[in-house]
Amino acid sequence: xxxxxxxxxxxxxxxxxxxxxxxxxxxxxxxxxxxxxxxxxxxxxxxxxxxxxxxxxxxxxxxxxxxxxxxxxxxxxxxxxxxxxxxxxxxxxxxxxxxxxxxxxxxxxxxxxxxxxxxxxxxxxxxxxxxxxxxxxxxxxxxxxxxxxxxxxxxxxxxxxxxxxxxxxxxxxxxxxxxxxxxxxxxxxxxxxxxxxxxxxxxxxxxxxxxxxxxxxxxxxxxxxxxxxxxxxx
Length: 234
Ligand code: ADP
Ligand code: 5GP
Fold this sequence. Notes:
This protein is α/β, with parallel strands linked by helices. Helices cover about 50% and strands about 20% of the residues. The protein is built from nine helices and nine strands. The termini are far apart. Adenosine-5'-diphosphate binds near residues 9, 133, 134, 165 and 168.
């Protein structure tokens, strides 16, 4: 059985950056390419970042029960095709899903063993800065993403792991540790006496990102998002 990893994050937290880097260093991962009705951004290619389809095509796929989960995000449909999980199983790989909080909840219901990871920016100011430096979105879209981020962040406690993406290299290492530690557990190497020193180190690093172990570090981050009453008002 393939392991399933769910990664969610408010837009601009650095999820794509982290996932792209981790894919280069963790073998045996299959990346699910979602279907979406949103328009491609500059530089995006059909079949690489997403499969870009019309609303009618997406709704036809819903009717055919082709999705493991789907949701409406920013007014567009996004969905994970069932076939990716089947393909991951055939290829003996673990499946990595980059999906929003609604999709994460649907997957957790269907696949209780799925491991969920929520990526957070160090604070709201930094998120705003990252959204701007990425300069992919127009100003109203950035403002909308910030408001949505505050709402999404409230769901942090539905996830198994929380990764605060402050220093990039440390975050890459933490994400790698979570993926590999969970793989070790699935392989049945949870018996402490069977573990090598490297495995013990990996598991310890992953444990530092467990929801219960980051609650204190989360406080100021959550507070930075709560301070904003409404878009445009600081
Ligand atoms: P997401 O996929 O979550 O929307 P991106 O990966 O596109 O976010 O990252 C948003 C911006 O933040 C990009 O310009 C990226 O280079 C930058 N970024 C990502 N991680 C970090 C980090 N740890 N420190 C500083 N900048 C980062
Ligand atoms: P973006 O438009 O920035 O690429 O993605 C917007 C949001 O949609 C992100 O939070 C992303 O995780 C989410 N998303 C992407 N693909 C899927 C999917 O297949 N299902 C769900 N539920 N959300 C998705």
